[in-house]
Specification:
The complex is a heterodimer.
Chain A: H1 21-25, H2 28-35, H3 50-77, H4 86-113, H5 125-128, H6 135-163, H7 167-194, H8 199-216, E1 222-223, E2 230-231, H9 234-239, H10 244-268
Parallel strand pairs in A: 1-2
Helix pairs in contact in A: 3-4, 3-6, 4-7, 6-7, 6-8
Chain B: H1 25-49, H2 56-79, H3 88-91, H4 97-107, H5 115-140, H6 147-174, H7 178-198, H8 217-220
Helix pairs in contact in B: 1-2, 1-4, 1-5, 2-6, 4-7, 5-6, 5-7
The chains are: A mainly alpha, B mainly alpha.
């Protein structure tokens, strides 16, 4: 088996249909959801589009968890002991187990919510963040940006479970949220340890994290205003070790991304 | 009232633990280091394979087992400093060149179509060998002087048994055609040949048998 598996070689069964982000946005079901959406973009149970949006998001969580599992698994294999010490790989192996459980939970929650594997497409940009060959950059991109996004997503879904009177959804999202906080902590800890004597490498890794964070904020998907369906979970991010400045920066990226999308729509529309 | 001043033997009548055991400190440490080395190669391989198998249930089992074997390596490495070596990495070594060749062959399959080959290597060749070697170690070592190793191996064996059973069930659900039976057999045969030459996961005498004679090794090597 070779080191560094490109995204094109991710193995899937025939239920999975791969798409890029643009294709995902042009899914006609999103159009129908938009038509039924007025004012806030937040997930609110009293809105007609809420069940469709929640199912779509749950499917997105499911494929995201598979890719997070694959990314953590590749980090146990892609690097030798000088690049990634055993203790780091042990953390990644632990994350594999956690992500496996998250996939299992997501499949069961998907069934609970009335969707099934393959109803929506799979975008692979999450795994792509794990294709970098520097372990410090990979941990910044996957464990801090991607797992940070997972904190925001799970907290949003947990709130939706609470608001919609769905104790199963709330229960499961809260458990997954606890794991994600741990994964972000692992990422922060290892980023610090791996780059202790190399500030330039650390800055490159943080720059990569910012790029990934911006990608995940695409079109205002994640932010702090009513225009974002996924809300930044400040309290849980603080528990995971993000400081206020870092969280403000992510909120800023989200606002920037919304402005860019508006400008783009203005030009094309 | 129990008279606490009345002398009692140090060992209760039912306590059959005895001195000495089969292994001195160095031999126990060498074996533990060899187990740790192989557990490390195994968890890395399982982690790497997750992205390469299309079967969703297999993907998830690999994720779980990856952590089990990483944890085994950690437990074994924790025992090493207690066995005279303060730097576990210096004792975390393959038993011999043969076991290195076996590990390389075990890890080799990558393509999405090779799930059977990946699983056969782990669940039909390696795990039966680790179960056998750990069992031999805990049955043979001193139950008094090497009790910490026995305790560790017992924890590991619980995982190994359960993981082996789960992997074997996956294989039985995947192997359905004569061609798949043939693939599974061929894969097991080629890896068995390599590990027999290595003498087992801890090298010659893994199970206490006579040291395998060099001149016989060619008989076990696949053509």
């Amino acid at each position: 088996m070779k080191r560094f598996l490109p995204v094109e070689e991710l193995a899937r069964d025939e239920r999975f249909i791969r798409s890029d982000l643009a294709e995902g946005f042009s899914d006609p079901r999103n159009g129908r959801v938009r038509d039924r959406t007025i004012s806030t973009a937040r997930l609110q149970p009293d809105r007609a589009a809420a069940p469709d949006r929640a199912r779509s998001l749950m499917h997105g969580i499911f494929v995201g968890e598979i890719q997070a599992l694959e990314a953590a698994g590749r980090t146990t294999f892609d690097f030798d002991d000088t690049e990634a010490p055993f203790a780091l790989k042990l953390d990644m192996a632990r994350q594999c187990w956690d992500e496996s459980r998250h996939v299992e939970i997501s499949v069961k929650l998907g069934e609970h919510m009335g969707t099934e594997i393959g109803e929506y497409t799979e975008a692979t940009f999450l795994y792509e963040a794990a294709c970098v060959t520097d372990p410090a950059m990979r941990l910044a991109g996957v464990n801090r940006a991607l797992e940070g996004l997972a904190i925001d997503v799970f907290n949003t879904m947990k709130d939706f479970g609470q608001a919609s009177g769905d104790p199963v959804l709330k229960f499961c999202e809260d458990w997954m949220l606890a794991d994600e906080v741990t994964h972000v902590k692992m990422g922060s800890d290892w980023l610090r340890r791996l780059t202790e004597r190399d500030p330039e490498r650390r800055e490159r890794a943080l720059e990569f994290q910012r790029a990934v964070d911006k990608l995940f904020s695409l079109g205002g998907f994640r932010g702090e205003t009513d225009e974002s369906p996924i809300q930044i979970a400040r309290r849980f991010r603080e528990l995971a070790g993000f400081d206020t400045k870092e969280i403000d920066e992510i909120a800023g990226l989200a606002a920037e991304s919304i402005a860019e999308t508006r400008a783009l729509l203005g030009k094309t529309g | 009232m129990v008279d606490g001043r009345k002398p009692r033997p140090a060992f209760a009548p039912w306590d059959r633990r005895a001195l000495p055991g089969l292994f001195d400190v160095e031999e126990s440490a060498r074996r533990v280091g060899a187990y740790a080395w192989l557990e490390m190669r195994l968890f890395e391989a399982l982690g790497g394979w997750i992205a390469t198998v299309p079967e969703l249930d297999v993907k998830l089992v690999l994720g779980r087992h990856c952590y089990h074997h990483a944890w085994h390596a950690e437990q074994l490495q924790q025992r090493l400093p207690e066995l005279r070596e303060m730097n576990p990495a210096r004792l975390t070594l393959p038993a011999n060149e043969g076991i290195v060749a076996f590990a390389e062959a075990l890890i080799e399959p990558e393509a999405a179509e090779l799930t059977i080959e990946k699983l056969v290597g782990v669940f039909r060749v390696l795990l039966p060998r680790t179960i056998a070697a750990y069992t031999y170690h805990l049955n043979g070592t001193s139950t008094i002087t090497d009790a910490p190793t026995i305790r560790t191996l017992n924890f590991l064996l619980q995982d190994e048994f359960e993981d082996w059973r789960e992997g074997e069930m996956l294989l039985q659900s995947l192997i359905k055609t004569p061609e798949q039976i043939e693939r599974a057999s061929e894969r097991a045969k080629s890896l068995e040949a390599l590990i027999v030459v290595a003498g087992g996961i801890a090298g010659a005498g893994t199970l206490g048998e006579e040291v395998y004679e060099l001149e016989n090794k060619s008989e076990a090597v696949p053509e």
